[in-house]
Design goal:
alpha+beta, about 600 residues, binds flavin-adenine dinucleotide, binds succinic acid
């Protein structure tokens, strides 16, 4: 071991004592060898630190080892052994801030009670708290730091797809990501990707068509969707699956989601969640193409030239400060606004205090930036509540759980709705039940067939019992009511007809002990509205004219889903329109370049 490493390690053995004061991690390490210890240089300014913090993380790992070494596998929850630490962009400094209080990033979604070293260090405002308008103006007045054909803003599925497509079309591309790692809401997607006409459907003998996909989507959206966009979504959904499979994705399983006439929701085998998988695949592909996300880099302003064509953006880098990127074309892929409390209160006041299943990144930045340059919005006030967010948590209990067989009952133990109806109707139905909450109930066959369900169990969200009556007692339901509900449901299933609520598909009964239940309530899930786009993904201005060079895709847009999105249609949207926006942006940018 190098002497410096030994010194750091021995000093860290007394970490408990060091952490007792208000010292931060930087001053602790400073005692071991000055700035050099972490930064590799004796004199460092903020601007010397690359926004991605990769170099500093290399230093951390030189002394402490990587996550695998640090993970304590005997613990039920260990942050170094989490699903996030498997992903390379999650690094030490995401949690262990040098000059500020540490932050347990897991708690962006969970509520773990873990004390971190240096937790008592002085709190500082987050680097991206607010926008320094003076610095923005100075950056705007200065020369651009770089010039690029296509600037993609946001590295969720839409942005990653756009960046890959634009790069493959021959454009130079920069992909900005404000968070410390890429993924956004896309990395949380659980259920799957809706596609019609795939070999997977053919293998299972599923009779589907583009027209049926369009019909289901329009019906789900209450007819308010843009029919042209919906048709493109349906027509290109299968080639989107192939595009992902060609990169190495597994979308081999197909199941049914709420509001769909047939099974068309594609996902990895074994009931694995779709989002983390495809984000990993896309991220690896983007890196291979040389367009990996530039993390900790938030776009704060879109720039137009004197002819109202897009000219680039002002970016705020975590360490590099405010700077300008000149771009021939820009793709806005910043996601929705499900975590922006002010926007929710403004656009959907009835959902004001509702929990949200969304990633903390869904703050509507793209909508604000687009509004500031006179963009047009579609259905901006339509917000979807997902019926089954884990009660008192932010963990989504995927529609898959109902899709593969769970029933939904109220706090007494009685069913009250067709579990496979559209989620706006299911959420409404729950909100009309006592205590505005419900239980999903299922048996061990379902538990064993869906990996995500075992994940909920790991998080301690499931109740379990050997008989239905005992399960009811554990959950505070009426045992006789729940037993009667289960008996009737199993009989309907055997007869092939749900006499009570007309549920169209009953793949599993509730027959094999042990039995399980999970408490759920509706939570903000998807913002259907956003910037208005053309079928070519061009962003429209307030007079419905395309803003030259500006494109958008994914949850930041409106029009595809109408007033209510069907489960599985958003990932399809991000792949189909992500690709289209990247291709059209590249075409436009390269056209501009060759015209010069
Ligand atoms: P996101 O994936 O949210 O990505 C946007 C990115 O932009 C983020 O990384 C964000 O940090 C970044 N960003 C934002 N502002 C800026 C800025 N100013 N500068 C730089 N970067 C910025 N849909 C399905 O079809 N199937 C499912 O199974 C499914 N399950 C879901 C489960 C959950 C828990 C949730 C929350 C959603 C689910 N959805 C599902 C919906 C779907 O995941 C999202 O609608 C979709 O992934 C949005 O993709 P996106 O790329 O548009 O946005
Ligand atoms: C879910 O798995 O329930 C979410 C699917 C979606 O939002 O499309």
């Amino acid at each position: 071991m190098k002497p410096a490493a030994a010194l750091v390690l021995s000093a860290l053995l007394s970490l408990g004592a060091a952490a007792a004061g208000a010292e931060d991690l930087a001053s602790f390490h400073n005692k071991l060898g000055g700035c050099q210890t972490c930064h590799g240089a004796s004199s460092v300014t903020a601007a010397d630190v690359p926004d991605d913090e990769i170099d500093i993380n290399g230093k951390c790992m030189t002394c402490h080892g990587d996550y695998k070494k640090l993970a304590d596998k005997s613990k039920r929850f260990d942050p170094h052994n989490s699903h996030l630490s498997d992903r390379s962009p999650i690094n030490c400094t995401v949690c262990h801030a040098g000059h500020a209080q540490p932050k347990l990033i897991c708690n962006d979604c969970h509520s773990f009670d873990m004390k971190m070293p240096f937790a008592d260090a002085a709190a500082r405002p987050a680097w991206d708290d607010g926008i320094d308008e003076k610095a923005v103006a100075a950056a705007e007045a200065a020369a651009p730091r770089e010039t690029v054909d296509v600037l993609v803003i946001g590295a969720g599925s839409a942005g990653l797809n756009a960046a890959i497509a634009a790069k493959r079309a021959g454009a130079s591309v920069v992909l900005l990501e404000k968070h410390a790692y890429a993924g956004g809401n896309s990395m949380l997607a659980a259920g799957g990707y809706n596609a019609v006409g795939t070999p997977q459907q053919a293998k299972k003998g599923i009779k589907d068509s583009v027209d049926l996909y369009v019909k289901d989507t329009m019906k789900g959206g209450r007819g308010k969707n843009d029919p042209q966009l919906v048709r493109i979504l349906a027509e290109q959904s299968a080639s989107g699956v192939k595009w992902l499979e060609d990169m190495g994705a597994d979308l081999s399983d197909v199941k049914r989601s709420g509001g769909a006439t047939v099974s068309r929701t594609h996902r990895p085998h074994g009931g694995m969640s779709v989002g983390p998988h495809i984000v990993d695949v896309l991220r690896a592909e983007a890196t291979k193409e040389g367009v990996g996300a530039r993390v900790n880099s938030r776009a704060v302003k879109l720039l137009l030239d004197k002819d109202f064509k897009i000219a680039g953006a002002i970016v705020h880098g975590k360490h590099s400060g405010y700077y300008k990127i000149a771009a021939r074309a820009v793709v806005l892929a910043t996601g929705g606004y499900g975590q922006n409390k002010q926007m929710i209160a403004f656009y959907r006041p009835t959902f004001k205090n509702m929990t949200s299943s969304n990633n903390v990144t869904s703050t509507g930045d793209g909508i604000t930036m687009a509004l500031n340059i006179g963009a047009s919005m579609t259905d901006i006030d339509w917000v979807q509540a997902h019926p089954t967010v884990g009660l008192d948590s932010r963990i989504l209990i995927s529609e898959t759980v109902r899709g593969v067989g769970a029933i939904m009952v109220n706090i007494k133990g009685a069913r009250f709705v067709n579990e496979l109806t559209t989620r706006d109707r299911a959420s409404d139905a729950i909100l009309h039940q006592p205590e505005r909450r419900a239980w999903l109930v299922f048996d061990s066959d379902l538990y064993n067939s869906a990996k995500m369900v075992r994940g909920y169990d790991h998080l301690g969200m499931l109740k379990k019992a050997d008989t239905i009556e005992k399960l009811a007692e554990t959950c505070g339901m009426d045992p006789a009511t729940l037993a009667g509900t289960v008996r009737s449901y199993n009989a309907y299933r055997k007869a092939g007809k749900d006499e009570a609520f007309g549920r169209p598909d009953m793949p599993l009964g509730i027959e094999k002990a042990p039995y399980y239940a999970v408490a759920v309530a509706p939570g903000i899930h998807h913002t259907m509205g956003g910037v208005a786009i053309t079928p070519q993904s061009e962003l429209l201005d307030i007079q419905s004219r395309p803003i030259p060079g500006l494109y958008a895709a994914g949850e930041v847009t409106g029009g595809v889903h109408g007033f209510n999105r069907l489960g599985g249609n958003a990932i399809a949207d991000t792949v189909v329109f992500g690709r289209r926006s990247g291709e059209h942006a590249a075409q436009y940018a390269l056209g501009l370049k060759s015209a010069k």
